[in-house]
Design a protein that fits this description.
CATH class of chain B: Alpha Beta
Shape of chain A: globular
CATH architecture of chain A: Alpha-Beta Complex
Number of helices of chain A: 12
Largest sheet of chain A: 9 strands, mixed
Shape of chain B: globular
Number of domains of chain A: 1
Radius of gyration of chain A: 18 Å
Strand order of the largest sheet of chain A: 3-2-1-4-5-6-11-9-10
Helix content of chain A: 25-40%
Strand content of chain B: 15-25%
Largest interface: A-B, 44 and 42 residues
Number of strands of chain A: 11
Oligomer: heterodimer
Number of strands of chain B: 11
Distance between the termini of chain A: 18 Å
Strand order of the largest sheet of chain B: 3-2-1-4-5-6-11-9-10
Number of helices of chain B: 13
Strand content of chain A: 15-25%
CATH topology of chain B: Inosine-uridine Nucleoside N-ribohydrolase, Chain A
Largest sheet of chain B: 9 strands, mixed
Distance between the termini of chain B: 56 Å
Structural class of chain B: alpha/beta
CATH class of chain A: Alpha Beta
Helix content of chain B: 25-40%
Radius of gyration of chain B: 19 Å
CATH architecture of chain B: Alpha-Beta Complex
Order of helices and strands of chain B: EHEHEHHEHEHHEHEHHEHEEHEH
């Protein structure tokens, strides 16, 4: 175990969500990371469900001391749309998770983020794996805390084609204005978009390895993945399912786990067909004339990523 | 780096993969044969690659070239018109009428690509004057007359901004059933080339492109996904020069000009002959693989303006109640494409 002083302090901002649950389990298992808290947002499911799911995942992992704080129920300017067809009505369909062992923090995500960042001796890495509402609000409401943010390693966006719409990835599509605030913030950003997450795949062999752990946590995650994979089999005719959100954690925990390139990235907020598109100048800045502002993750080794995740789940009983 | 990753060898930026793609399907575009050539109108903004596209059409007995109409795009429209006249003259096709169309987009600013094609539109290449002049009625009226007079439906290959085609469709809706197909160069499923979201021909007039994709006329979109596989290099330029004819000299010079720019800008040693792919699709039935997509054009004014939003995922199409409305080019055999161009230019003067 790395001494605490050398650990990277992180806050996970998420909407669990099957792949968010794996992201949380990975972050809490990695000795390189010190998870200061989890903030939640509506996305994969409504806010009440994602908050409850975060608490249930922590109860499952035996880590209910980790504080959870809920954000607003809606994106900044738009009605919330969720993805029950992907994650089920609960947001975590397919497995028996324990009831929450704790309650969310009364102050809510915005104040929790501000206080936690201010209290941290060093800058903190934010890992948003859902819509960016909380982070956008934080940067607009308390701009001074930006100095305490070391980096934002987010799951969202795409260089080429989206998933929720042909033009946009789900997390950015849900709250494009919040995403635009984040991408224009000037903070160091690592974007794990669809190009890299579609190389971070779980299929039946990986699920079998989770089953073979013969632990309660292993079985729950195997069940969650069976549900998640089934959707991809039905919709995309493949069992190989991107574990999107865990890539954003892996990018922080394991240097070199993802290969990145530096590009200019902005967010489309006005287009009807292209709402929430991450507009990525993949010729550096040749097309926009703007300085590259984001490390865009493009590559990951599937086997190494699977070993990392299964190894993390294996640390739990 | 983890095992298995080598970003240095990961490939050029345009090798970034596109996910959620459609499966390849049967082509819907007609194609001509020597026995039954396809009547064809080219609407163009020559243009380096336009010049090669026109040469390919002029030399191919599979198409019957009814006219070349011009539109402002790669260069100012007057230059494009003069280039079209001179190119047809060089290619020995003074019989093909030329008519000038729109100077620029239906809405908004006029966009040019002279940094790519030179102010002249044809780099530094000198073209001998044509004895012909452009037809007085203009591009849209000439297209309408040719389509109305044709005993069979006419195919159109728009290889510039779609301004003229949108005007044709709006001004002469009764002629729509007589348009056999529109095989256009423009757009992309994945990358952009003029903005981070959009390809030049579409972003130069997004509203016109929107009219075309909504028109109900069968459309094939030859976008950057496939044209960035349709490449010529220095050796190909030399092979064109080695044909020892005037047309080959012109094509070689234009290709070299594009290669010089690409080398300077990105270190690339190839150049995409975008526009010729749209013509080739009408000539060779199995050269370009296509996939069915619903294509819509972003006409908003954000950074994604002019993006062709291509949906080929069946469940998403069902969710939005959309049907596919276009074939989109996805793969081309580069070697056969190069040979097609060389063979064509070997038959020209």
């Amino acid at each position: 175990m790395t001494p605490d002083a050398a650990r990277i302090p992180v806050i996970i901002d998420c909407d669990p969500g099957h792949d968010d649950a794996l992201a949380i389990a990975l972050a809490l298992a990695r000795p390189e990371l010190e998870v200061l808290g989890i903030t939640t947002i509506g996305g994969n499911a409504p806010l009440a469900a994602t908050t409850r799911n975060a608490l249930r995942v922590l109860a499952l992992l035996g880590r209910s001391e980790i504080p959870v704080a809920a954000g607003p129920a809606q994106p900044l300017f738009r009605p919330l749309e969720t993805a029950p067809q992907v994650h089920g009505v609960s947001g975590l369909d397919g497995a028996n998770l324990p009831e929450p062992a704790n309650a969310p923090r009364p102050e809510g995500a915005l104040e929790f983020l501000r206080a936690t960042l201010n209290a941290s001796p060093g800058p903190v890495t934010l890992i948003p794996t859902g819509p960016l509402t909380n982070i956008g609000l934080l940067l607009r409401t308390y701009p001074e805390v930006a100095a305490k943010i070391a980096r934002i390693s987010l799951m969202g966006g795409a260089v080429r084609s989206g998933n929720w719409t042909p033009a946009a990835e789900f997390n950015i599509w849900v709250d494009p204005e919040a995403a635009q605030i984040v991408f224009r913030s000037g903070l160091p950003i690592t974007m794990s978009g669809l190009e890299v997450t579609h190389k971070a795949l779980f299929g039946w062999p990986e699920i079998a390895r989770l089953d073979a752990l013969n632990t309660r946590v292993g079985t729950v995650f195997a069940d969650l993945m069976r549900f998640f994979v089934r959707f991809h089999v039905e919709r995309y005719n493949t069992a190989d399912t991107p574990i999107h959100d865990a890539v954003a954690v892996a990018a922080v925990a394991v240097p070199g786990m993802v290969g990145t390139k530096r590009y200019q990235v902005d967010v489309e907020t006005t287009g009807e067909l292209t709402r929430g598109r991450t507009v990525v100048d993949d010729r550096g800045q040749a097309m926009t004339g703007l300085e590259p502002n984001v490390d865009v993750a493009l590559d990951i080794d599937r086997a190494a990523f699977a070993d990392l995740l299964i190894g993390a789940i294996a640390t739990y009983r | 780096m983890s095992a298995g990753i080598n970003l240095e060898d990961w490939g050029p930026v345009h090798a970034i993969p596109t996910y959620h793609k459609a499966k390849a399907g049967e082509r819907t575009a007609p194609f001509g044969t020597r026995e039954h050539p396809l009547p064809l109108i080219i609407d163009s903004d020559p243009g380096l690659d336009d010049a090669l596209a026109i040469g390919l059409a002029c030399a191919s007995p599979e198409v019957r070239l009814l006219a070349v109409t011009t539109v402002g795009g790669n260069a100012d429209v007057a230059r494009c018109t003069e280039n079209a006249l001179r190119l047809l003259h060089a290619y020995g096709r003074d019989d093909v009428p030329v008519a000038e169309g729109a100077a620029g987009a239906l809405l908004g600013d006029i966009v040019r690509a002279t940094e790519v094609h030179g102010v002249s539109g044809v780099g530094n290449t000198q073209l001998a004057p044509s004895p012909n002049v452009a037809r007085p009625e203009g591009a849209v009226a000439l297209m309408a007359q040719l389509i109305a007079d044709s005993p069979e439906p006419v195919a159109i290959a728009p290889i510039g901004p779609l301004t003229n085609i949108a005007l044709l469709l709006r001004l002469y809706p009764a002629l729509i059933p007589k348009i056999a197909h529109i095989c256009l160069m423009g757009g992309s499923i994945g990358e952009g080339n003029t903005t981070a979201s959009a390809e030049f021909n579409i972003v130069a007039d997004p509203e016109a492109a929107d009219v075309v994709f909504r028109s109900g006329v069968p459309v094939t979109m030859i976008g950057l996904d496939v044209t960035h596989q349709a490449l010529l290099d220095r050796a190909a330029a030399q092979a064109l020069r080695d044909l020892r004819n005037e047309s080959g000299r012109i094509a070689a010079e234009l290709t070299d000009y594009a290669l010089d720019r690409n080398l300077e800008w990105s270190g690339a040693t190839t150049t995409a002959i975008h526009d010729a792919v749209a013509i080739a699709h009408y000539i060779v039935p199995d050269l370009v693989a296509v996939a069915p997509y619903h294509v819509a054009v972003e006409t908003g004014h954000g950074p994604a303006r002019g993006r062709t939003v291509c949906d080929g995922v069946p469940y998403r199409l069902r969710r939005h109640g959309e049907e596919t409305n276009a074939d989109v080019g996805i793969v081309i055999d580069r070697t056969r494409f190069e040979r097609l161009l060389l063979d064509a230019y070997s038959r020209l003067p």
